[in-house]
Amino acid sequence: MSAPTSPADLYRHSLRLLLDKDIPAWVALWAEDGVMEFPFAPEGRPGRLDGKEAIAAYMRPYPDHIDLHDFPEPDLRIHETTDPETLVVEMRGVGRLVGSDRPFDMTYIAVVTVRDGHFVSYRDYWNPLAVLEPGTDFARSGR
Asked: Is position 2 within any domain?
């Protein structure tokens, strides 16, 4: 694939990488000083990740916990804003929780800023309590 040419193209490309479980390539889309935030993070879970290395460490084991199968197109809405570098994304991720083999079906809203072809800010408004089932690998790992 050629390099994404817009923030929306970069975002769509990032979703394909997550479905392919290519976390190193997903992390490569980030600026060195990028910031990922989880405004609804429960106590004891990270609410903010500063820098590409912190984001990489957080995401590295992601496929061991959540096996994503799809971001269904009817539920994927990418809204451009008055700032050409910032998107508001509504989407749904479906798959399964690896540790319990339970279905995974999560609705997300994200506010994403892209600069010079890299993510610089990503505020992920998802409900982590929906996957923090006692006894699952996801709950124990803090991811």
From this structure: no
| 126 domain-assigned | yes
> C-alpha angle 22/25/30, rounded to 5°?
130
**Position 127 in a domain:** yes
Q: What is the dihedral of CA 34, 39, 40, 46, to 10 degrees?
A: 40
pTM score:
0.87
**For the chain, what is the domain count?**
1
Parent domain of 34: 7-141
Task: Determine contact, residues 29/13, Cβ cutoff 8 Å.
Answer: yes
Has residue 44 been placed in a domain? yes
pLDDT digits (tens, 9 = 90+) for 118-132: 999 999 998 876 656
Q: What is the pLDDT of residues 58-71, one digit of tens each?
A: 999 999 999 999 99
Distance CA 80, CA 86 (A): 7
Tens digits of residue pLDDT in 72-119: 999 999 999 999 999 999 999 999 999 999 999 999 999 999 999 999
